[in-house]
Amino acid sequence: MDHVAKNRLNPAGRRLSRIRALAISALAVLAFVSLGGPPADAEVKRVGWVVQQVGAATSERAGHRVILAIGASVYRADVIRTAEDGRVKVEFADGTIVAVGGGGELVVAEYAVDGDDRLGAILSLLRGIIRATVAAALPSAEFEVETRAAVASVRSTDFMVEAEDGHSAVVVLDGRVAVAAGAGAVVLGPGEGTDVDQGASPTQPKSWGRKRVDSFIARTRLP
């Protein structure tokens, strides 16, 4: 097993607990529908914006549910939700692109940038599927996608994560991704994927068939 992946197990577990707490807190705050505006905390900076959208999507922030549209801002701690027939693509300040498929729920738990440079990012995928094309960043600036079952960590790559009840799947389209869960970790290369049941270690990397990869891509594709 890759020694970097091994060293990430305990920190990943601690971060996952923190992100779950944040997600639960965000989901507990349901309020009225608003057409936009920044969060009440003026110190919270915009970290991204919507560049493509199909169907309905919302973002919950600071006790308000915001209707998303092309050009809408995305902030740290936003909870992005898409309708079953909706999809949304977000470009972050560092150039990273994240597409959220239908029926998705994604928490922008952390996204720290300095100008165009990413200092670190953590996204929590509560359900659904995303595709992340991650821009190159400083050597210490990692990009993580966490689900209830696993943590996927990268620096610059193109990969996809699916989260369902008690199960997650990760596949790499380009680059390398470390996936940690349970008592184990694996490193995926291009074309390789892993499946993770909650509480279990990731399955060993294997080449996914074209059919499964294409089905993942189709679920996040926007015109």
Main attributes of the structure:
223 residues; alpha+beta; 18-stranded mixed sheet; 3 helices; 16% helix; 47% strand; globular
C-alpha Rg (nearest Å):
16 Å
Largest sheet: 18 strands, mixed
Q: Classify the secondary structure makeup into a structural class.
A: alpha+beta
Helix and strand run = HHEEEEEEEEEEEEEEEEEEH
Strand content: over 45%
Please tally the β strands and state the result: 18
Apparent shape: globular
Helix content: 10-25%
End-to-end Cα distance, whole Å, is: 39 Å
Low-confidence runs of at least 5 consecutive residues: 1-36
User: Could you report the average pLDDT, rounded to the nearest whole number?
Assistant: 85
Number of helices: 3
3D architecture notes:
- The N and C termini lie far apart (39 Å).
- With 223 residues, the chain is α+β, with helices and mostly antiparallel strands.
- It has an 18-stranded mixed sheet that branches.
- Helices cover 16% and strands 47% of the residues.
- The longest helix has 20 residues.
- The protein is globular, with a radius of gyration of 16 Å.
List the helices and strands and how they pair.
Blueprint: H1 3-7, H2 9-28, E1 33-34, E2 46-54, E3 57-61, E4 64-67, E5 73-75, E6 79-82, E7 87-92, E8 97-100, E9 105-114, E10 117-133, E11 143-146, E12 151-154, E13 158-164, E14 167-174, E15 177-181, E16 184-188, E17 192-197, E18 206-207, H3 210-220
Parallel strand pairs: 1-4, 10-11
Antiparallel strand pairs: 2-5, 2-7, 3-4, 3-6, 6-9, 7-8, 8-10, 9-10, 10-13, 11-12, 12-15, 13-14, 14-17, 15-16, 17-18
Task: Give a brief rundown of this model.
With about 220 residues, the protein is an alpha+beta fold. The chain has helices at about 5, 10-30, 210-220; strands spanning about 35, 45-55, 55-60, 65, 75, 80, 85-90, 95-100, 105-115, 115-135, 145, 150-155, 160-165, 165-175, 175-180, 185-190, 190-195, 205.
